[in-house]
From TrEMBL:
Pfam families: GalKase_gal_bdg (PF10509), GHMP_kinases_C (PF08544), GHMP_kinases_N (PF00288). GO terms for cellular component: cytosol. The keyword tRNA-binding does not apply. The keyword Ribosomal protein does not apply. Coiled coil: none annotated. PROSITE patterns: GALACTOKINASE (PS00106), GHMP_KINASES_ATP (PS00627). It comes from the Bacteria. Gene3D superfamilies: 3.30.230.10, GHMP kinase, C-terminal domain (3.30.70.890). InterPro entries: Galactokinase, Galactokinase_CS, GalKase_N, GHMP_kinase_C_dom, GHMP_kinase_C_sf, GHMP_kinase_N_dom, GHMP_knse_ATP-bd_CS, Mevalonate/galactokinase. Residues 86-171 form the GHMP kinase N-terminal domain. The lineage of its organism: Bacteria, Bacillati, Actinomycetota, Actinomycetes, Propionibacteriales. This is Galactokinase.
Length: 376
C-alpha cells in the first residue's frame, strides 16, 4: 500500500470518507417513487487529498496501478474511462452546478468489497465530491451532494441508478436506518441498533458472479414503467395495497402483473418494518425480510441459487428473517439473528455452500454507521 507522499510527493491537506450501504428492505421500489430503508456500513471508501492550482486532478488508488490525470476544463461525459470516471464525474458535476472547486491530488483506499452490491460506486462518487468540496472549504447540504452524485453516475458514468445509494452514503446516522420517501424526497432517521436487543444483522456476500445485471435491471424497470402507464398512474407507488387486486386484473401481461405485485407489497413491507422498529419490536421485522425475499424470488425474479440457498439455510439455522439485498443476480443477503447464534448461522451457510459447490461466502459487520465525513 502506497502512502500519499510516495504517490504525490507531498503530504495531504486532509482526508474524507464515504460509506457503502446495505438496504434493510424496499428493493426495486426507488425507481417506482417508493420507500427504502438503508443503513450505512462501517466499510467505506477513504480519500486523502491535497489542493493544486493548475486545474489538474490526479487520482490514484491502492487497488489500482498508476496515476490518472485529467484537467477540469476538459471534462465531459465519457472523457475519463474505467474507475477514474467516478472521481472525474464528481468533479464534472460539481463544476456544472457552479461550485468553485479546483485541481487536486486524490488517493483512494477502500475496505468496501467491490461487486458485492454494497454500493461501492456511490461511495466512490460521494467520497470524491466531499473531498473536492472540502479542499476549498465549500459547505454543501449532504442531500444535495447525494443528488449531484446521482447525476454524475447517470450522466457522466452512464449508469441509470436511483438516488437511494447516494442518500445512504451521505445522510445516514449512526445507530439508525434512513427512511427515504423517494416521491416526497423526505428522510427520517429510524432507530436501528440490533445489539441493544441482543441481535445481529449479518451481511453475507455470496460471491456469486453477477449475471446479466444491466439488461435484467433495465427489463425490470421497463416492465414497471409499462405497467404504470397501462394503469394510468405516474409510478407504481400510486397503487395502494387495497387497490392491488383490481390493478392486477387490468393488466394483460402476467410478467407485468408479478412485477407490480412485488413493488406494491414491498412498499407496504417498508412501512410495516418502520412501524415495528419505531415501536421497539425489532424481532418482528424478521418475517418481513423473509417475505421480501420470496417476493423478489418469485415475482421479481432477480435471485440466483447462491442467494436462495443462503437465505433458506439462514432460516433453517434459526435466523429470525433473511433476504437478498441490492439489485439482485448476485451480491449479498442480510439475516437478522440472535447475537449468540450468529456464528452458527454463518457456519451453516458455509457448509451449505461447500455442499452445493459454490464459492465460499464471506460476512461483514453491519453496525449502522454515519454517512460521509471529514476524518482529518
Amino acid at each position: 500500500m502506497s502512502t500519499f507522499a510516495e504517490v504525490f510527493g507531498t503530504e495531504p491537506d486532509g482526508a474524507w470518507r464515504a460509506p457503502g450501504r446495505v438496504n434493510l428492505i424496499g428493493e426495486h421500489t426507488d425507481y417506482n417513487d417508493g420507500l427504502v430503508l438503508p443503513i450505512a456500513l462501517p466499510n467505506r471508501i477513504a480519500v486523502s487529498a491535497s489542493a493544486r492550482e493548475d486545474g489538474v486532478v490526479a487520482v490514484s488508488s491502492n487497488g489500482q496501478e498508476g496515476v490518472v490525470e485529467f484537467t477540469l476544463d476538459s471534462l465531459q461525459p465519457g472523457s475519463v474511462p474505467d474507475w477514474a470516471a467516478y472521481p472525474a464525474g464528481a468533479a464534472w458535476v460539481l463544476r456544472e452546478a457552479g461550485y468553485g472547486i479546483g485541481g487536486a491530488n486524490l488517493l483512494f483506499d477502500s475496505d468496501l468489497p467491490s461487486g458485492a452490491g454494497l454500493s461501492s460506486s456511490a461511495a466512490l462518487l460521494c467520497a470524491s465530491a466531499v473531498a473536492l468540496l472540502g479542499l476549498r472549504g465549500i459547505e454543501v447540504d449532504p442531500a444535495e451532494v447525494a443528488r449531484l452524485a446521482q447525476r454524475a453516475e447517470n450522466q457522466y458514468v452512464g449508469a441509470p441508478v436511483g438516488l437511494m445509494d447516494q442518500m445512504a452514503s451521505m445522510c445516514c446516522t449512526e445507530g439508525h436506518a434512513l427512511y427515504f420517501d423517494i416521491r416526497a424526497m423526505t428522510t427520517d432517521q429510524i432507530p436501528f441498533a440490533p445489539a441493544d436487543d441482543d441481535l445481529t444483522l449479518l451481511v453475507i456476500d455470496v460471491k456469486a458472479p453477477h449475471r446479466h445485471v444491466d439488461g435484467e435491471y433495465a427489463a425490470r424497470r421497463r416492465s414497471c414503467e409499462q405497467a404504470a402507464a397501462a394503469l394510468g398512474v405516474p409510478a407504481l407507488r400510486s397503487i395502494e395495497l387495497d387497490q392491488l387486486d383490481d390493478a392486477l386484473a387490468r393488466l394483460d401481461d402476467d410478467v407485468d402483473r408479478r412485477r407490480v405485485r412485488h413493488v406494491v407489497t414491498e412498499i407496504r413491507r417498508v412501512e410495516d418494518a418502520v412501524a415495528l422498529m419505531r415501536a421497539g419490536r425489532l424481532r418482528e421485522v424478521g418475517p418481513l425480510f423473509t417475505a421480501s425475499h420470496a417476493s423478489l424470488r418469485d415475482d421479481f425474479e432477480i435471485t440466483v441459487p447462491e442467494l436462495d440457498v443462503a437465505v433458506d439455510t439462514a432460516l433453517a439455522a434459526g435466523a429470525l428473517g433473511a433476504r437478498m439485498t441490492g439489485g439482485g443476480f448476485g451480491g449479498c443477503i442480510i439475516a437478522l439473528v440472535e447475537a449468540a447464534a450468529a456464528e452458527q448461522v454463518f457456519a451453516a451457510i458455509e457448509k451449505a455452500f461447500a455442499e452445493h459447490g459454490f464459492r465460499a461466502p464471506t460476512s461483514l459487520a453491519a453496525d449502522p454507521s454515519a454517512g460521509a465525513s471529514r476524518v482529518r
